[in-house]
Structures are given as structure tokens and as C-alpha cells.
Amino acid sequence: MAKKRLGQDGLSLVELLAALVIASLLIVLISSVLTSTLKFNNGTQDTIHLRQESNKIITQIRNSHQNNGEICYQNLLDNGDISMKLTLDHINIGKYSCLQAVSTNDLAVMFTLSNESDKDYTLSTVVEGRERTPISIAIPDKKEDGDFVDMLDLHDVFVYGSNLFISGSSPLNSATNGSGSVVINNLNKKNLEFVGDNRISVQKIYIDKLGNEVVFKSSTHLGEAKKTELVTINGNVILNNGGAKIYGDTIYINGDVTFTDSSVIEGKKIIINGNVVFKNWSAEMKANEIYISGVVRNETSNTKNIVGTLKDYKNLKKDQIPEHPSISIPTFREDSWYSKNGYETRTNGNLSNDIRIYSPGNFKLDNWQPNKKNVVIISKGDIELNNFGGSELTGILFAPQGKVTFVGQAFKGIVITRDGFSTGSNPSITYMNIREFIKENDPVPFQ
Predict the structure, then answer these.
(1) Which domain, by its residues, includes 293?
(2) Which of 51, 79, 120, 421 is 20 to 30 A off residue 271, Cα-Cα?
(3) Rg (CA), the chain
(4) Can you give the pTM of this predicted structure?
């Protein structure tokens, strides 16, 4: 009987193996396509979800920015499955950190959202600040303030010049418990540097260094709490010493402010027509009302450098900006005028009480002097009083083309100078009104 062949009644072994291989390949291919499709759909859903979350976050940031509110990390995320890396104004904001928004400032925003599947979504944009109107200092009309002596009397001017250098820890006070003004102009076109541990405790302080800088290199206190009503500064302010402080009921700075150390600006109202940069954790700007026209940038992780209520700068009215006194330096009388009106013409020599001196050049005194009262020195150059030792001088030192130097125990009176007032030996400095020395009917030694 003939044998039956496998190929006649079914599949051969080779054909069966081939069929299994093809089926396996089809299963793998279909599984790969399904897996890829599922991953794509999941990835798309993750992206859509993260994008929806980012839209919520940027909406919250815009609302806080518009209302001058705090932007806090923990208030932006309501989904525990998502983490966020947040940067505002190029500052990293941690989980428990906030940034005080200012509606008039542009706000740079960048954040990256990540879910549990390690899917990321990054958004980078700028929230534009509302338009602001620049405001400049209002200058009073000269005609309303009269002549130079009346001006000094009206504004209680104590020191008038381009510079103020008081050595050591000398206090600068007022004989009438808080009145008096310090007026610093920019006739020398140079920076004003505070380098002593001084306390300038007068009622009003006016500094005009527009185009230059006011630099605190020491722990000078410009103004005193509960005594100084007004501080106005034209020019950029740089606080380079942790002990430096600016106090005043109202503080107006027409320029940028940079805190490089733990300095303090404190008042009831602070107005900054410029940018503010915090480079130190402990630096502080503190007031009931704070107006800043420019950008606030914090280069530390501390977002609490500003203490008080930030208000919209553009809502300030012109009459809310402090006025800067319009005082121009006077000129000399004719040389003959001084001899006719009781002035001694000389460039050196000892002083006496009630003396009047006119110097056609520098006036220099190196001899020791006992206490002298009611002295008036008018000089076309510098005035140097180098050896008062433990003695006191009261009077007027007038050098509108030079500088004034005093080395002694105490000075009471007024200083008028182009290039500044400097001291040695750590004296006490006290303001006295010009009418203490030049009465209403007295001849005025300048015009």
C-alpha cells in the first residue's frame, strides 16, 4: 500500500512556521501602532492640559499686575500634579515667595510647567505696564521769592553749594529745633558723595545733581525721622553703605535708586521718578504711600524690600510733586562798596567779634582762635579756617567762587559756596537764620 504525504492532507511544518512568523510580525506592528497612537493622544492631552493651566496662571498674573497686587507662587497653582519654575522680572520666584507688582511697569514673565509624565510646557511673555505721564519738578517763580537774602530767609537756607563734606560723625542740626534747609546745587557738575557718619537733621533738604549721582559711601543719615519734612533729590541715588539712611515725611527722587547694601529709605510718602534696584537682601524702602514710575528689580530672593502701599505713579498730580527752591548764587558788590560799609579788605589775619572781612582772593587763617561771634567773611576765592581747635565760630562764610573749610569745635551760622563746605576735627554744625546776622535794614554784602 502506498504512503500518504503530509502535503496532500494539510500544511507542511515549514508553512506552519512561516504563518506563525507572519502573524507575530502583524501583531507586533499593530501593537506598535496602537501604542504610538495612545502615547500621541496622551501627549496631546498633556500639552492641552498644561496650556490650559498656563492660561489660568498668566491671567492671574495679569490681574495682580493691573491691581498692583502681590504675585505669589502658591496662589498660581491649584493642581498638585503640576510643578512650576517661575521667573518674574528675571527673578526666580520660589514656592513661598512673592513679587510686588507695579501696574505702570512692564513685567517680564517666564514659567515652565511639568506634569508627572515629565511633559513640559514653557511660556515666556511681557505683561505691559499701563501708560504713565512723566512729571518734572515744579520750580517756583523767582519774583515771588524776592532777592537772595529774602530767599535764604524764606527757605531757612543753612548750607548752599555744590558739595557737602562733614568729617567724622558731626551732626548738622538747627538752632531752632528742626528748621533750616540744606541746598546742594550742581554748579561743579560732579557727583555728591557722603563719606562721614553724619546726621543731617534739618527741616528740608534739596539736592540738585541732575546728570550726576548722589552716592552714600558711609552711614550718613540724610534727614531725621519726625524732624525732616522734605527731601528732594535730582539725580541718581546709589546707597553703598548699610548704615546709610534717607528719612523724611516726603521723599522725592528724580532719578534711579540702587541699593547695593542694607540701606533704608523711609518716610510717609516716597516718590521715585525712575527705576529701583535692590541688590541686598536687607535693603528697605518703607512708607505709607510709594510711587515708582520705572521698573522695580530685585536681584535677591527677598521680595519684601518694599514695605507699604505701592500706588500708580501716573495718578500723581503736578501739585503733589515737591517744589525745588529757585535759588541762584548771587554776585559781589563793587570792591569799593565793602570799605565804605565797614568791611576790612584782607586775605588773612586774626578774627574778632562782629568783624566784617572782604577778601579779593582766598582768605586763609591758620592761627588758633578763641570763640568768635557774628563774623562775616566775603571771599572771591576759598575760605580756610584751619585752627579753631576747641573754639566756636558763629557767622556767615560767603565764597560763591570757591569752597569753605572749617576746622574747629563748632560752627553756627550759614555757608554759601560754589564748591562745597568741608570740615575737619569732627565739629558740631548748627544752622542759624541769615537774619541773625543781616537785619532788615543792614547793607547786604552781595547782590
Answers:
(1) 154-328
(2) 421
(3) 37
(4) 0.60
